Amino acid sequence: MDTHFVILLACVLAVLLIATIAAQILRRRAPPGDLTIQNLTARINAWWVMVGVIALAFAFGTAGVVILFALCSFAALREFLTLTNTRAADHWALVAAVFIVLPLQYVLVGIGWYGLYSILIPVYAFLFMPILSALRGQTENFLIAVSEAQWALMIAVFCVSHVPALLSLEIPGYEGQNLLLIFFLIVVVQSSDVLQYVWGKAIGRRKIAPTLSPSKTLEGLVGGVLSASVLGAALFWITPFTIIQAFGLSLVITLMGFFGGLVMSAIKRDRGVKDWGHLIAGHGGFIDRLDSVIFSAPIFFHIVRFYWSVT
After folding, report:
1. pLDDT digits over 48-77, tens only?
2. What is the SS3 assignment for the chain?
């Protein structure tokens, strides 16, 4: 693995170790059965597992990263589809989405065929999935069912696939270091989520969208986004960006991550659930963990491709 990545991984592990020690100290001082401390401990333990899995995938290079995010998309798509109004007439379309479109999207990403993976889902899947459903002849709730399946593919597969797609970008003077772009994206966006929570708990007063996400405040948003953007600027040395460019890109992706979280919360409220799933202890489901990355990854990818890549 790249020396820069090893150093950064060591820093992340150090932060997790400090967080683990702090959680143990708080657990001993808190009353027995304190739910907040239990949730904090579960989240930290889950982060140990997630960081380990990501590091293992990074060790295997492009293939490892593509496979990892393909599995994440599969889990996220499954979570999304369990909350949709699926009908018997939609089974063919859903089978095609899971077993044809999803793996094909990641194969195309893996071989770097931008011209096809950029339109496979928003063009071809968008058109052919409703055809498969229409052939079954069931018209009741047709538009709702088709729209939900298309939205599931866009969210869980198309958007998420833009994370490993960063590996296919050819940036002059940055050859062989694209894994660090993924590291930059994930660390900045996920740090923004954590820092928004911390700032919100510390000084949050004015709620932004109380019906969608009661814990999100204006103070938390401003503090978290700016803090994460400063972190992104500090990481400029692992990217092809200048300090100012790194700060600006961080600002864009953290804001997109925030709005992505709001959209995902709106869908959950519409479906009447608190979390997308329960697979990740303390975090909910895969979409709960990916919601901010889902909206930020395509924007980050296309900005970098347009301004820095020669492909």
Report:
1. 888 888 888 888 888 999 999 999 999 989
2. CCHHHHHHHHHHHHHHHHHHHHHHHHHHHCCCCCHHHHHHHHHHHHHHHHHHHHHHHHHCHHHHHHHHHHHHHHHHHHHHHHCCCCCHHHHHHHHHHHHHHHHHHHHHHHHCCHHHHCCHHHHHHHHHHHHHHHCCCCCCCHHHHHHHHHHHHHHHHHHCCHHHHHHHCCCCCCCCCCHHHHHHHHHHHHHHHHHHHHHHHHHCCCECCCCCCCCCEHHHHHHHHHHHHHHHHHCHHHCCCCHHHHHHHHHHHHHHHHHHHHHHHHHHHHHCCCCCCCCECCCECHHHHHHHHHHHHHHHHHHHHHHCCCC
- Is residue 8 within 8 A of residue 238, CB to CB? The reply is yes
Give strand pairing partners of 284. 280
In the chain the first and final C-alpha atoms are separated, in Å, by 25
pLDDT tens across 192-219, in order? Answer: 988 888 888 788 788 888 887 777 889 9
- What sign for the dihedral angle of Cα 148, 151, 155, 161? positive
